[in-house]
Amino acid sequence: QLQLVESGGGLVQPGGSLRLSCAASRATLDYYAIAWFRQAPGRERERVSCISASNTYTPYADFVKGRFTISRDNAKNTLYLQMNSLKPEDTGVYYCAARSRYCSAYRNEYGYWGQGTQVTVSS
């Protein structure tokens, strides 16, 4: 059973950067599409980005395009999210999630989730 653990969150000033990591264990990520979701207080969980198992498809939400970059290192069994030019509205809990091979925009189609890591963007 695939297990996911996020890390790298924290408090950062507007305009700053963070890199989130999602380490997988008990299974290889090679055959999974992996996504980053985020949930702000009082809001629904929304997909930020995803990377397909083939690494050929990496959609981004409009609100992070040009600022965030998703990547994966299969040798380390780890997914990353590089977040630059952070804004206060990027504040929330960030989750990684996995499903077989192909990205989906729908959170209920991801069967594996991490526990989340808090990102707070504030001066």
The geometry reads as globular
Which band does the percent of strand residues land in? over 45%
Structural class: mainly beta
Beta-strand segment tally: 10
> What do the pLDDT scores average to?
96
Secondary-structure element series = EEEEEEEEEE
Poorly predicted parts: none
Question: What composes the largest sheet?
Answer: 6 strands, mixed
Number of helices: 0
The N- to C-terminal Cα distance equals: 40 Å
The amount of helix comes to under 10%
- Output the radius of gyration: 13 Å
Task: Write up this protein.
This protein has strands at 3-7, 10-12, 18-25, 32-39, 46-51, 68-73, 78-83, 92-100, 112-113, 117-121. Helix content is 0%, strand content 47%. It is mainly β and 123 residues long. The model has no long low-confidence stretch (mean pLDDT 96). The protein contains no helices and ten strands. The N and C termini lie far apart (40 Å). Strands 2, 4, 5, 8, 9 and 10 form a six-stranded mixed β-sheet that branches.
Would you summarize the structure shown here?
The chain has 123 residues and is mainly beta.
List the helices and strands and how they pair.
Blueprint: E1 3-7, E2 10-12, E3 18-25, E4 32-39, E5 46-51, E6 68-73, E7 78-83, E8 92-100, E9 112-113, E10 117-121
Parallel strand pairs: 2-10
Antiparallel strand pairs: 1-3, 3-7, 4-5, 4-8, 6-7, 8-9, 8-10
